[in-house]
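Example 3.
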Amino acid sequence: MSDPFDLSSFQPAPPAPPPSTPPAPPPWLEGLNPEQRQAVETTDGPLLVLSGAGTGKTRVLTTRLAYLLHQRLARPWEIMAVTFTNRAAREMRERVGELIGPPAEQLWLGTFHALGARLLRRHAELVDLKSNFTILDADDQLRLLKQLMQAANLDPKRSPPPALMGCIQRWKDRGLTPEAVPTSDRGAMDGFAHRLYGPYQERLKTLNTCDFGDLLLHCLTVFKSHPEEALQPYQQRLRYILVDEYQDTNVAQYLWLRLLAQGHRNLCCVGDDDQSIYSWRGAEVGNILRFEQDFPGANVIRLERNYRSTPRILAAASELIANNRDRLGKTLKSGHAPQSASQGDDDALGERLRVRAVWDGEEEARVVAEDLIAHQRDGGRLSDAAILVRTGAQTREFEERLMTTGLPYRVVGGPRFYERLEIRDAVAYLRLIAQADDDMAFERIVNKPRRGIGDATLKTLHQLARAGGLSLSAAATEVLGSDELKPRAAKALDGFLQQIAGWREVAAETPPGELMSRVLKESGLIDMWRADPDPQAPGRVDNLRELCTALEDFESLETFLEHVSLVMENEEAALGDRVTLMTLHGAKGLEFELVFLAGWEEELFPHRRALDQEGLKGLEEERRLAYVGLTRARRRVTISHAANRRLFSQWQSCLPSRFLDELPDAHVVREGAKGLSGGRAGSFGGGSGLGWDGPSWARPKPDRHIERPTPTPPATRPAAPDGEAAFSPGQRVFHDKFGYGTVTRAEGGKLDIQFEKGGAKKVMARFVVAA
DNA sequence: ATCGATCGATTTTTT
DNA sequence: ATCGATCGAT
């Protein structure tokens, strides 16, 4: 394994790479269209590639990398390719590898954060860190901030820690250290954010830790304060820099790139302003909009030929996004079908987009499931379909439905493996073993499982640590030498320290996976979860096992811990044929044959918060999100909106999203839901408690024309027979929510049912049908 | 030190 | 509905 940042192996490069006879053009240039090819072959100077959805962006990037190497314009370690996500980095490395083989390994290729981290480790001492600094995740960040707030006597009610944290992070995104925060910004959050920012940074340094923002922010500091030592070598070395998803870069990333690119000025940024959906996280669309001013003499190439979606989908997406003002302007053209297709030729244009009105979220999920079953019956694969939602919470109803229907699915971007409670605890053990002064880890696990080390003991340790400038571990050793603790607590603490010390020795001669299983067993963590009656506990035990397996792939504890901090995801288990369920944000960069876009309702999408906080800018970003959603689909788009939705514990009636009005009628077919007004209303059993006064979408609204739903009874739930159907034990039944089950007891209108998924339940007979 | 109950606030997106 | 924080009892 070579470390691209290892300057020790760096020999002053020949002034220019030998411009020997340029090799013949390689075969992989052949398949490119003229614009793509131009984007690959324009190697000199700043270049902006505006790449619309589905126009072969990744292909251009990877081919460009291969081209640079093939033409001997640079050696692998003289090229940096930066991505936004780990997924993109992985994919790029794979695909470049396919083109050029092993040299791909030596490219500086990774996410901003990964590259930033590796760079920073080389120069950590310049910002008062040690090169083995740890990387804090969101959870630890927040805990730390809360501690500081407590020390400063700030009321977490009046100033919510997450909001304060967000504020600090946005400063970091803009490349602002505490001193550099402009006075106009210092009043934010009643001034508390700025008041805490400095101490927060101090604390991080004491702990020899960085948060995510620091990985870039500290780089900038280092670049500026020690250019000759920590910047120029890189500037000279990096002949070419490529950036993916440039529209998502924040100011800090922009500055970082600009500094590194100053040597050779061969900066190639690829992006799409229409897909900028991360402004809330500090991303600056301005970066891409300003590119030509920032880098005078820049070339701009537009990729507009879309090879992914049908003409109808492209037309719909284009018309929708045309409602945005701040854009560089691109028009997606269909890349395949030569325009020979005559206007009325439906086949050539592809299917119309379907817009479907449903009663509520449950029905929404049900119809999607029905469509999926039909799709399967037609020989389609589930893995060709995706359900895209605006917020993570929306996945739940779909999960329930898919589970009861027996359709395999996967949730992308759900609670991630390394973020799970039990995993974080287990990893904290490893962290403490690897680094005794990892106080965050120490605090996290010192009393987990319970070993009688409570708040009182911890408080003593904190005091001592602060007074003596010690880590908690060191303070613990100190305190045991004194008699400050009660014997009982002292004994427990001593036992804990000894255990950790013991594992530390084991770690030296044992592979990480084995170490982990020993720790889990000997610490009692595993037993703790085994003994937990919580229904989720067994799953946690499984996760811990999986963790041990995952650890087998790592050489050392250190490499694993770096992986955990930066990658945060576990290799996905072999998937099989599953439908994908995820948020719109998570879907960027992916494509599917069939796409279901759920929850297109005002307040939810566009999301109310986006509108409240950012006004028009927020709306435009939501619209870009819609654009991203539409352009994920190759063949078929199905949009749904519910008339009612439960938002926290309350029912709310919803209006269809304004985005629906922005889709061209010519390419859309609007459907009412099956059985909406017929069977459904009755199934609420005269429950007028909902205060429903008719489907909101049916209320007259001048510029909307949504058909009234046809009163067809729902396919999966025939109305229950009026004279209470006679169910008897042993009978197989179907319940709308719980799926299939067997009756174990029947008494009047009430049944006991053993469901195949979800266990035993008591259910009113009218809610089930014979299966 | 630990546990349980109660109360209140909180809901976007995540490298 | 779910999560945290807080408080009082054991």
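Confidence is low (pLDDT under 50) at residues 7-15, 674-724 of chain A. Chain A has five domains: 27-122+218-303, 141-207, 355-408+576-672, 418-449+474-570, 731-770.
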